[in-house]
Amino acid sequence: MTDIIPLYSAFLGSRLLASGPLPDVARAAADAQGEGSPILIFDDATGKETDLDLRGGPEAAAARYAPPDEARGRGRPKLGVIAREVTLLPRHWEWLAAQRGGASHALRRLIDAARQADGGVTTARQRQERCYRVVTALAGDLPGYEEATRALFAGDRAAFEGQTAAWPPDIQAYAARLAWPNEAL
Questions:
Q1: Per-residue pLDDT tens over the stretch 23-70
Q2: How do the residues of the chain divide into helix, strand and coil, expressed in percent and rounded to 5?
């Protein structure tokens, strides 16, 4: 199993500079500094703006955000297992300890069952919220913004695309990719 690499996207005004791992995006953003428009960088997973230290030029910025050498930690990192603290009441620990496979296995089963019962509602809401953050920052003053956000939260892709049709192509494509990542444009 490979590690999931967080992805970011940088915009210079309405133009997409780069999209990919943080060091690559930092390099592109540092290279574009001074071109006039502000540079906005977004975490693709959350839609939140990210401030980067771009001092020292493209290579210094990229090096600053390069992943650290892997330190051997708790859990089973090669399997994607991450050890974190969980705080429960004694009765919860007792119940977990009595379950087939132990506490960790029982928690994984419970979480998987809850995710399946959710029917994708949480995932859809997260996609809408991340798209909303981005369009508010990049397109909040563009025509059709309010109507596009209403269509976004209604889950109406056709109406969303209709309202964003006049937006700059990079913003339009990025917003659609965040809102509907698994559907072809």
A1: 999 999 999 988 778 899 999 999 999 999 999 999 999 999 998 765
A2: 50, 10, 40
